[in-house]
Amino acid sequence: MSDSMQVDRSDFDRVMVPNYAPVDMVPVRGLGSRLWDQQGRDYIDLAGGIAVNALGHAHPGLVEALTEQAGKLWHVSNVLTNEPALRLAAKLIEATFAEKVFFANSGAEANEAAFKLARRWAHETAGPDKHEIIACTNSFHGRTLFTVSVGGQPKYSQGFGPAIEGISHVPYNDLTALEQLMSARTCAVVIEPIQGEGGVIPATDAYLQGVRALCDKHNALLIFDEVQSGMGRTGKLFAYMHSGVVPDILTSAKSLGGGFPIAAMLTSDRIAQHFGVGTHGSTYGGNPLGCAVAERVLDIVNTPELLQGVDARHQLLAEGLMALSAEFPVFEQIRGRGLLIGAVLTEAWRGRARDIQEAAQRHGLLVLQAGPDVMRLAPSLVIPEADIREALQRLRAALASLAG
C-alpha cells in the first residue's frame, strides 16, 4: 500500500468501524476557508472541523510552527519535559486565571482529567462522601465512559454497561434546580458557558454568577468546559471572560491546536496540588509538535485585532442569515456568540437540520447541525468577508432547492 493507492468514500464502509457516517465526498486539500475534494470541486467551510480550524486550513504560521518543530523534536514522553510545552503553559497562565496547566490530546481527555481532579481534591480535602458531580441536561463533555456519563445526553451513554455513579443532571440555565440538588456531597458542577452540541445555547451571566455563588456556598468546584467555546471562538479568548465568572477548572481543546490534536486543563495551584506524581498522566500529552502549533495559535488569536474581527464576522453572518430567513422563513432565531452560531429552525423547518446540511454540501458549502432543529456554524476566526458573502449565496441556493 502506498500514497498513490486510489481510495474514495466507498472504501470507508469497507475498512472503517461504522460509528461515523461521513458525507459522500472526500476533501484532499484546504486553504483558508476553502476545501477541495477528489474531483477538484471547492467548498466554503463554515464547519471549521467542528470549531477546530480556528485559523482555517494550511495557515502559513501554523505550517511554519509545525514543520520547524518537526525538524527538531517530536516526542519524548512525560519522563522528560520540553520547551514548547513549557512556553505554551506559561502563555496560557499569563492569559487566564490559571496557575497550573495539564496537557492532553482531546477535549474528552481534558474533561476526564478535570473530573478526576475534582474528585481527588474532594476526597483529600473532605473525604469519600464528597464525590457527586452535577452537570446539565443536553450537555456534551466527551466520549470516554466517565465524560459520556457526565454529559447529559443519554443516547450517547446508554448501552455500555453500568454508568459511573454519583453523577446527576439539571436543566441548563435553571439556577433553582441546581440549588435544590446541591449538597455537602457535591464536589463539582460542570457547565459549558455555551452548550455546543446541545443546540448552541449561551448561559446567562446571572446564571453563571449564581452557579459560582452556589459552588462557593457548598465548597464545590466550578468546572467550565470550554472545549468548543474557547480560544477566541466567542470574541474573547475564553467565554468565561464575558461574564466575569472565574471557574476553578477550565478545559480547552478543539481550536487550541488549530487542527492539531491537543487539549489543556487549566486550574489553580490550590487544586492542582491534588494531582501529585503518578496520580494521572498521558503518554502523548504535551508533545512538542502539538504544543508548538498551539503556542502559535495562541499568539495569533489572543490579539485585540483578531478578537474584534470575530465580532464583526458574527454580525455579518447573523445579518445575512436573517436576510435569508426573510426570503425563506427558515430561521426563527440566531443565537450563540462570536463564530459559534446556532440558527434555530422555524416550526415549518423543524427537524430538517440534516437536510439543510446535505443541501448545502451539494451547493459547495459545509455547515453543521446541533440537533435536528439547529444549523450550527463554527468557521475560521479569520474567514474573509468575501467568503462569508459567497457562503450566504450558496446557502441561499441550497435553501431554494429545498423550498423548491
From TrEMBL:
Keywords associated with the record: Amino-acid biosynthesis, Aminotransferase, Arginine biosynthesis, Cytoplasm, Pyridoxal phosphate, Transferase
Note: May also have succinyldiaminopimelate aminotransferase activity, thus carrying out the corresponding step in lysine biosynthesis.
Cofactor: pyridoxal 5'-phosphate
GO CC annotation terms, alphabetical: cytoplasm
Molecular-function GO terms, alphabetical: identical protein binding; N2-acetyl-L-ornithine:2-oxoglutarate 5-aminotransferase activity; pyridoxal phosphate binding
Binding site for N(2)-acetyl-L-ornithine: 143, 282
Binding site residues for pyridoxal 5'-phosphate: 107-108, 140, 225-228, 283
InterPro entries, alphabetized: Ac/SucOrn_transaminase_bac, AcOrn/SuccOrn_fam, Aminotrans_3, Aminotrans_3_PPA_site, Class-III_PLP-dep_AT, PyrdxlP-dep_Trfase, PyrdxlP-dep_Trfase_major, PyrdxlP-dep_Trfase_small
Species this protein is from: Halopseudomonas phragmitis
Principal EC category: transferase
Self-association state and partner proteins as the record states: Homodimer.
Annotated protein name in UniProt: Acetylornithine aminotransferase
Name of the gene this protein is made from: argD
UniProt-annotated location(s): Cytoplasm
Extent of the signal sequence: none
